[in-house]
Each structure stands twice: as C-alpha cells, then as structure tokens.
Specification:
Blueprint: H1 7-24, H2 43-51, H3 60-83
Helix pairs in contact: 2-3
Length: 99
C-alpha cells in the first residue's frame, strides 16, 4: 500500500483549479489603485484627498461621482481661503498738498 496520491486525483484537481481560476480573477472587477496620498496639513484638503480612496472600491463608471465630489470640495476649500478675513490692509500714506 502506498501513501502517495493517485495520479488520477492530481489530474482531476489540476483541471478543477484551471476551471475555477477564471472565477477567481475578474479583470473588470474594481481594484485599488493604491495611489499614495500625502497629508497636506489642511484638514479640509486632507479629507477630500482621502475621499479619493472611495473610488478604489467602485467600478469605473462610479469614479466620476467621486472625482466630481472631491473637485467640488477642493474648489470650496480654495474659495474659503479667499473669503477668510485677514488683517486690515494698511491705509495709503496721507500727503498734504502744498498750496
């Protein structure tokens, strides 16, 4: 009696693996892009950049919604920079005209 596996079972297993392999890999399935996102130090901008990671789990037709949302958020963050009050601008020097 031999402890080795009969050859017919090995062939059957290899055929079974070959048949199952196409189901295991689907090139059309969503796949993470693993693009590194470096923090900027601005909480609003960093939150938008992290939102880009949501596209990793969506099919390509779902990416547009994420990209538009991130673009809108980044545009709003830039607009907010212009709207923030800063120190008052210095007034121009007063020159008295000579008469």
């Amino acid at each position: 009696m031999s402890d080795s596996v009969p050859e017919t079972e090995i062939q059957r297993d290899s055929v079974q693996v070959a048949v199952e392999a196409p189901d295991a890999y689907d090139p059309a399935a969503p796949a993470p892009l693993n693009v590194p996102r470096t923090p900027t130090g601005n909480a609003e901008v960093d939150a938008q950049l992290e939102r880009l990671g949501d596209a990793d789990h969506l099919a390509t037709d779902g990416h547009v919604e994420v990209y538009e949302d991130v673009h809108r958020g980044l545009r709003d963050a830039l607009t907010a920079l212009d709207a923030r009050p800063g120190p008052p601008a210095p007034s121009p020097p007063y020159h008295q005209s000579r008469s």
